[in-house]
Amino acid sequence: MSNQKLKSPQRSNKGFTLLEVLLILFIMMILVYQVAPRFTSSESLARVKADSANRQRIEGAVELYTLDTGEIPGSIEDLISPATEVRGWSGPYLDQALVNPMKGALPYELDAQGKVRTTTP
């Protein structure tokens, strides 16, 4: 008999073990749980900023309307199209009625002083 050693079949190292795959998935889940709340808070912050910008835009349009006509508009619609009895209207002061991003599709309303208030369902 020859002195050759019997070679055992070599194991291929071309893949990951189940333990390695599970460890990677676990680490990825931890990262997702850490990052996900930041995205939801960013969305909330964006809604607050959009609401603030809408209010400023409407109240600025009310000031222009008041300067032109000498009256406070009765509604947001008066800023978009003129009421028949108003003199000096040189709008439109708004392109369209803005909706409140914080309250879904509820529109903004004006109070007696021309300040913005939101409707409640």
Description of the molecule:
The protein has 121 residues and is mostly helical. The chain has a domain at 35-118. Helix content is 46%, strand content 5%. It contains two helices and two strands; from the N terminus they run H-H-E-E. The chain has helices at residues 18-69, 77-80; strands spanning 108-110, 116-118. Strands 1-2 form a two-stranded antiparallel sheet. Strand 1 (108-110) and strand 2 (116-118) form a beta hairpin. 9% of the residues are buried. The mean pLDDT is 80.
- The N- and C-terminal alpha carbons lie at a distance of 95 Å
Number of strands: 2
* Range of helix content: 40-55%
The best one-word shape is: rod-shaped
Q: Which structural class matches the secondary elements?
A: mainly alpha
List the strand order in the largest sheet.
Answer: 1-2
Please outline the helices and strands.
Blueprint: H1 18-69, H2 77-80, E1 108-110, E2 116-118
Antiparallel strand pairs: 1-2
Would you summarize the structure shown here?
The protein is mainly alpha-helical and 121 residues long.
Keywords:
121 residues; mainly alpha; two-stranded antiparallel sheet; rod-shaped
